[in-house]
Design a protein that fits this description.
182 residues; GMP Synthetase, Chain A, domain 3; 2 domains; 6 helices
């Protein structure tokens, strides 16, 4: 059962910040209780190019909101679903579990840096096999755990990586590029 109505999550400030992101035409923010019982903040937007939308949105939000108000998962949609009455249809919104993608989309780490980053993702998130295109936040990461990820990357690779970097480059592939460029 989809639970998009967790009363413990205040979404007003996050929603206001999402609506101020350039190119965002519409936004909805909900609390969601995942299969593990953890409450997450989910953001749904229309407008930006899906290929780069979530990176730019996270960059924008990270400079304006405290970490706990940044959505754990962001979804870029063609349109926000509506009920016949014209309200947002929260039950029709995708869930994080539905956003993990097909199993055949998995690409194994190809380099030493990617392999080590995949191991770090696995350790921090308590998940199994991590591919290079798997998103830290889609795997269950939060902005709080992203702070730990940035610290681990700094420690393991001796490169300066900030929380903003992790929010903008949240896949193994993107983080590996940052490490390789440093």
């Amino acid at each position: 059962m989809v639970n998009h109505t967790d009363p413990q999550v205040d979404t007003v400030e996050t929603l206001a910040a999402l609506r101020r992101v350039p190119d965002v035409r519409g936004a909805v923010v909900t609390g969601y209780v995942g299969v593990d019982g953890r409450t997450m903040l989910l953001g749904y937007v229309t407008g930006p190019d899906p290929a780069v939308g979530t990176i730019r949105i996270r960059q924008h939000l990270s400079s304006r909101l405290p970490g706990y108000l940044i959505p754990d998962h962001l979804f870029v949609l063609d349109a926000l679903p509506l009920t016949p009455e014209g309200d947002y249809d929260l039950s029709a919104l995708p869930t994080p579990e539905a956003d993990l993608g097909p199993a055949d989309a998995h690409v194994a780490p190809r380099t030493r840096v990617e392999r080590r980053l995949a191991e770090i993702f696995q350790e921090l998130l308590g998940v199994g096999d991590v591919g290079v295109h798997d998103d830290f936040f889609a795997l269950g990461g939060s902005s709080i755990v992203a702070t730990r990820l940035a610290a681990q990357v700094r420690e393991v690779f001796a490169v300066e990586v900030s929380l903003v970097d992790v929010l903008a480059a949240s896949t193994v592939d993107e983080l590996a590029r940052l490490v390789d460029e440093a």
